[in-house]
Amino acid sequence: MTYLCLVLAIAVPWLLGFVVLALLFRAKRMDIPLTAALGFGLGFGIFAQWMLFLGIIGVPFQASIVGLPVTVAIVGCLGLFVYLRKKSSGPVIAVPRFRSDPLIIVMIIYLAACGAYIYWRAFAFPVYAWDAVATVSIKAKIFFYDKSFEDLPRYNHPLYPLHIPLIQSWIAMMLGKWDGHLVKVIFPVAATCYAVTQYGFVRLFTSPRWALFSVVLLTMSPLFMHHATIGYRDLTMFYFNCTTVILAFWWFETKQMHFLVMAALFSGFTTFVKLEGTGYLACHSVLILGMVLLSKEIKWTGKVRVQSLFSGISIGIWSVYTVYKYARGLESGGWRYKTALGDQTLDRVPAILESFADNLFASGNWSIIWLLFALSLLRFKRIWRDKLLGLFVMTCLMFIGFYFLVALLTPNFVYLAGGQASKGLARVFLHFYGLAPIAVVLINGHTEPGADNKGTMMNA
To answer: Which residues constitute the domain of residue 315?
Structure first.
């Protein structure tokens, strides 16, 4: 019975995302695996915002109160999809089938073993890591028992966003008890869904071998595998941030507005996972601006409309909890964002470069992935003659540059290149780590621009 309740706890938000996504892409539908992978993030992102709304207006957190309206919404969306589908002649995109390729079979077996490991380890141990307890699960447990935001100002780290605590409290509500093992189910599921999304994106440009190899590279990072099991918020941030970038490039490649809307939603959801999400939203906005400026086929009025749509949705999501925090008088945390300009600012540069290089290339957190990325940059002619590829590489470097500036100009230097760098730097690099294996494969993989590549996982 416990596991049935767990399945229902995951299924309700997931189905919400699935049917909303099916509605968005009803004319040119995705296949089921990709819809499910993106539907996970969309559904849980919307569900967390729904619980935030209930908490703000003072509705008690109970499984029936939280879940019943969502269930009604799922049924309504499903009925609308069935009705509109009759009026749509859009093609059904088949799930890609692998050839009898020994190398592909070996990679699938390896990935299945990786999947079995992260699910086993997530369920084998309760929430025990320090931050997972102190900043996440303790809040989720309080929400489960208190059923409200009433005492939120007195919680540990009240400033931190509440996506994971709210989702874990929802799982506990459905279980009818607090279970430190089962509330971690969302982390290996998020890792799996991202792997499917990454495969689908890379498959647009390369062969199945290379697309699957990009996922193999992803799982070669010990830090990624570790965070898929321990309950830190960084894996969820990784999922939303990297998926936002993928969706943005999907829009850039296809110019389908549905992808832009999805990217905007996911960008907004990043701000409700960790404080760093606000900075990532700014990075996403810069990325969209660059894409808009490079899209010569879009007129200036269209460029303004695209940027306004993205910013309106993402900033709208960000503003909800931000306004609520200030309305409740929660700790501002402004010290984190104070600049540290002065005569000694440039003295930080050597320490920052050393810290970043040590973490990326010598820490053991990433295997050889960032080294492969750095070596791939030597193929600069291949990169710069392809507009999309060059922009993707620049996006990877933008995130590294973002943290370089944060370390250079703010008190966060101590966490990125100072005495606490061993604890903090790898975790923020994880947030955009998924872009590195994609870049490696897109630079070095065999690009096949023919019809066999385009539209395999998505009708482009």
So the answer is: 242-332
